[in-house]
Amino acid sequence: MIFSMTGYASAARTLPRCSLNVELRAVNSRYLDVAFRLPEELRAIESQLRELIMSKVNRGKLECRAGLAYLPEAQGRLDVNDDLVQRVAAAGRQVQQLVPEARALQVADILRWPGVIGEPELSLDELGSACRELVAQALDEFNASRAREGGKLAQVILERAARMQELVQGIAPKVPLLVKAYGERLSARLAEAGLNPDDDRMRQEIVLFASKLDVDEELSRLGAHIKELQHVLGRGGAVGRRLDFLMQEFNREANTLGSKSADLESTQVAVEMKVLIE
Questions:
Q1: Is pTM beyond 0.70 here?
Q2: How many angstroms separate the CA atoms of 85 and 101, rounded?
Q3: Longest dimension (CA), the chain
Q4: Residue 258: CB partners within 8 Å, gap ≥ 6?
Q5: Burial code of 228-243, b = ≥16 C-beta within 10 A, e = fewer?
Q6: Sign, CA torsion 54/57/63/68
Q7: pLDDT per residue over 73-127, tens digit each?
Q8: CA 124 → CA 19, 128, 188, distances in Å?
Q9: What does DSSP assign to residue 172?
Q10: CA 128, CA 44: separation in Å to the nearest integer?
Q11: Least confident of 49-58, 136-145, 146-155, 167-176
């Protein structure tokens, strides 16, 4: 299976006091580069999320973004610390026993005591567990989308390779004829210039110049590269660097084919091949 390095996925969940959402997005990168944008409540589990992502993604510049929003009913509610209220009340009764004339604590006095009333807090264990599950869920969809896009990219590349194979097979049988025709044209021009093309020395030079236009070796290498390209895509896995190297080899052979072109047809083949490689 071929995976694209670009992808996007998201997942969301509603918890008792808040809603939590996670987004994963990635673009091409030579190595794996993971960046996080997390609320303060989730900073403690960043290393756990990084390990989770690295276990399922090998390459790409990936951003993991998490959002946390408290629900309206949770924002409007205040939590009373029952244990602290009881201890404050017990301390008040103890003071009254020691100082009978002291005024008893009122409700307002207890409510103003630091820590008696607090905003609702989420359990880090509960929130962290939910976030890890969401990231794992998003990773599954993320990799599925990358696989779908990778399959389409592989098909596009194979179509280009098939067309290149057609060009190679079409021009290969004509190479000897092109070399021969070039030698005949060269002999005719020498004759027009008053030289004897049948002279042994001159014939050797004609054969030498004509042989420089023989692209049979380049076409053979192109055929081998096309087979290797098909093999790499069929094998799957991380193939980006291998494909990059093959494209360089394709370009080298196509450039040589163009530089040795002796007629319009071979020039057109070289140009179309370079377009396919690009």
A1: no
A2: 22
A3: 138
A4: 267, 270, 271, 274
A5: ebeebbeeeeebeebb
A6: negative
A7: 555 556 677 888 888 888 888 888 888 888 888 888 877 777 666 655 567 788 8
A8: 14, 6, 90
A9: G
A10: 8
A11: 167-176
User: In this predicted structure, what is the pLDDT of residue 276?
Assistant: 92
Both tokens assigned to 162:
């098939």
Q: What angle do CA 28, 7, 246 make, to 5 degrees?
A: 40
pLDDT for the residue 174: 72
Return phi, psi of residue 137, to 5°: -65, -45
**To the nearest whole percent, how much of the chain has pLDDT over 90?**
34
The helix-helix angle for 240-259 and 216-235 (nearest 10°) equals: 160
Q: Tokens 């003071």 label which residue? A: 95
Instruction: Give yes or no for a contact between 142 and 9, defined as CB atoms under 8 angstroms apart.
Output: yes
Distance CA 13, CA 272 (A): 52
Q: Tokens 């990219």 map to which residue?
A: 153
User: What pLDDT is stored for residue 113 in this prediction?
Assistant: 74
Instruction: Say which amino acid occupies 234.
Output: G
Cα distances (angstroms) measured from residue 91 to each of 80, 103, 187, 259 = 18, 13, 119, 98
Q: Give the per-residue pLDDT at 114.
A: 76
The model's pLDDT over 209-247, given as tens digits with 9 standing for 90+, comes to 656 666 778 888 888 999 999 999 988 877 888 898 999
DSSP letter for each residue of 7-75: EEEEEEEE-SSEEEEEEEEEE--SSEEEEEE--GGGGGGHHHHHHHHHTT--SEEEEEEEEEEE-HHHH
Structure tokens at 49: 């999320």
Query: Quick one: CA dihedral 254, 258, 260, 266, positive or negative?
Result: positive
Q: What totals of helices (H) and strands (E) does the chain contain, helices first?
A: 10, 6
